[in-house]
Amino acid sequence: MSEVLVLIDAVDGKVSKPSLELLTIARAIGAPSAVVFGDADTATLSGYGAEKIYTYADQAFQDFLVAPKAEALAALIAEKSPAAVLVPSSAEGKEIAARAALKSGSGLITDAVEVAVDGGNITTTQSVFAGSYTVAAKVTKGAPVIAVKPNSVAPVEAAGAGAVEAVSFEVSDAAKGAKIVTSEPKAASGRPELAEAAIVVSGGRGTGGDFSEVEGLADALGAAVGASRAAVDSGWISHTFQVGQTGKTVSPQLYIAAGISGAIQHRAGMQTSKTIVAINKDEEAPLFELVDFGVVGDLKTVLPQATVEINKRKG
Amino acid sequence: MTKIVVAVKYVPDATADRTFESDNTVDRENVDGLLSELDEYAVEQALQVVEAGDGEVTVLTVGPDDAADAVRKALQMGADAGVHVVDDAIAGSDAFATSLVLAKAIEKLDYDLVFFGMASTDAGMGVVPTLVAERLGLPAVTYASEVTVNGDTVSIRRDGDAASQTIEATGKVVVSVTDQTGEARYPSFKGIMAAKKKNVDEWSLADLGIDASEVGLDNAWTGVESNSPRPPRAAGEIVTDEGDGGLKLVEFLAGKKFV
Fold first, then answer.
1. Helices A299-314 & A212-221, crossing angle to 10 degrees?
2. Which end of chain B is more exposed for a tag (fewer CB within 10 A), N or C?
3. How many interchain CB pairs under 8 A, A with B?
4. CA nearest A11 in B: which residue?
């Protein structure tokens, strides 16, 4: 069975959930081989079906942006001729994928929300034009390099051999151009990652800058907190939390928008959510056109009432 | 003297009803186009770098005849000159072919830095800046939420999911900027008048030494098989809060097993 290379994303050795999703998808195509720059918990990788684990230890992979990883991945693609290459569809993942694909003469698909495998055929689905269309696409040249968005599948455990192979790769000087001078880890919020969460509660201009009601409801539901661009631009909350075209695209089971009118910039980031709920004082807010359930009212009273009720029901 | 090339894209207006041609390429005829909003931030940052010292900004686009509008808008904002690569053979190009045309055009220009927006607002892959850097053999500092140019060093802040990083590169550098870099200026009346006198060169593929077999829809490494509009969402239930809006919300969530 041919290999499928899976670029693993891990922080302090902890393998990200999207990486486990990629391993799950890879098993439908061939034998998953995890590609790890730095540390990743190998037991987790083999627990999700990795037959092989290629590890790269060179410090250059941590010290410079994108190019060294792309170079190493391209060399691995040339050596292994994999059936496909799967990467997380993050900013860095897409950049690595694009460069590696160009170097190895392989077609590239980014932002896939579904990867369908039929025999040797791989067809992806992407959501485009702010979520108003979906397209089906295929790579027509080389080993398909596909960047897959979080939440495309549920990760499923399966035992793999997990044979670790340390790869020695000399990073070229040309790839050492963009130096990472400082790196400040984001403070952990204790809440789920926005892009990966099953439930997201977002606040917008209607919060008036106070996100406590939004956070309260999010915590009652075990949800991630999001925000509209208006809230971010007002300086009320960090850009990390922005849902929309220039922030995160999320596709959770449940999306609750509080005090967000629903500009195209925001809809682009949440339109494909399974269930959508909005709370807004303005009954004309365009977001109400998208909702499964809407409350015309003040989030400052509606959210706390809902939070108390949910906590009561949870006992 | 810092010479900056800003690569921009002419895109269908994101607020209009965008659609596809019968060959699954983006319909660029029946929807009004404009300079991609995300590229305005790149023009703005380039102008700020030049205004803080000395230099000039050349705006570069690849696209159909109408794409000249995107160049004009950037000239109105304050860019000094424009280059428009236009050739029928380019239609339907994928990100790789687009990056080839851009890289060849940039090589033909006298430049120190190349600025991009973080992604286009139509295809939106966000990979063209890094691909152009790969082709030119230059460092790429991408997704900048802050840009500082000091002598021949470019320093950016890159806000990732796991960390906020400072990235530095020297010499000729490719930079892509996010909307976090700060609002883009509107063209002033003076800027609009001045833009009329600014020079825009039109280049063909032959001018860049690119063969038609290297670009276009038929030579793309990826093919879109089909497109379909998202089915309209069934109209939802909307209630007005009369003191029990929060309770009704929880009722709905409980019915869907979220509570």
1. 30
2. N
3. 268
4. B162
CA distance A273 to chain B (A): 11
**Nearest CA to A1 among A28, A20, A36?**
A28
Q: Which amino acid is at A220?
A: A
Candidates A95, A279, A314: best to mutate against B (most CBs of B within 10 A) is A95
- Give dist(CA A176, CA A157) in Å, integer: 37
Dihedral class, residue A215 (left if φ above 0, else alpha if ψ from -120 to 50, else beta) = alpha
User: How remote is the C-alpha of B61 from its chain's centroid?
Assistant: 10
Chain A nearest C-alpha distance from B24 (Å): 9
Query: What is the domain partition of chain A in residue ranges?
Result: 3-175, 194-314
User: What is the predicted pLDDT for the residue at A189?
Assistant: 79
**Whether A103 contacts B150, CB under 8 Å:** no
pLDDT tens-place string over residues A3-17? 999 999 998 899 999
**pLDDT grade for A259, boundaries at 50, 70 and 90:** very high
Pick B130's closest partner by Cβ from A95, A185, A290.
Answer: A95
Render pLDDT for A73-119 as a digit per residue (tens, 0 to 9): 999 999 999 999 999 999 999 999 999 999 999 999 999 999 999 98
Closest CA to A27 of A56, A62, A51: A51
Average pLDDT, chain A: 95
The neighbour count for residue A192, using CB atoms within 10 Å, is 18
Long-range contacts of range A297-300, CB-CB < 8 Å, 24 or more positions apart?
A297/B240, A297/B241, A297/B245, A298/B241, A299/A203, A299/A206, A299/A207, A299/A213, A299/A214, A299/A258, A299/A259, A300/A213
CB atoms A295 and B167 under 8 Å: no
Query: What mean pLDDT comes out for the span B189-213?
Result: 98
Label the pairing between strands B140-150 and B2-8.
unpaired
> Using a CB-CB distance cutoff of 8 angstroms, which residues of chain A are in contact with residue B160?
90-92
**Per-domain residue ranges for chain B?**
2-219
Q: Which two tokens stand for residue A268?
A: 């682009």
What is the CATH class of B2-219? alpha beta
Among A260, A222, A219, A218, CA closest to A243? A260
Backbone region of residue B92 per phi and psi (left: phi > 0; alpha: psi in -120 to 50; beta: other values): left
Give the CATH number of domain A194-314. Answer: 3.40.50.1220
Domain A3-175, CATH: 3.40.50.620
Contacts of B259 in chain A (CB under 8 A): 221, 310, 313-314
CB-based contact A108 B252, cutoff 8 Å: no
Q: Is A288 within 8 Å of B254 when comparing Cβ atoms?
A: no
Among A110, A132, A296, the residue with its CB nearest the CB of B240 is A296
Q: Which chain B residues are closer than 8 Å to A134 by Cβ?
A: 227-228, 230
Structure token pair of residue B53: 């010292």
- Residue A126 · residue A113 · CB < 8 Å: yes
- From A1's Cα to the closest Cα of chain B, the distance in A is 24
Q: Which residues of A touch B178 (CB under 8 A)?
A: 239, 246
| B30-68 tens-digit pLDDT | 889 999 999 999 999 999 999 999 999 999 999 999 999
Measured between CA atoms, the residue of chain A closest to residue B175 is A178
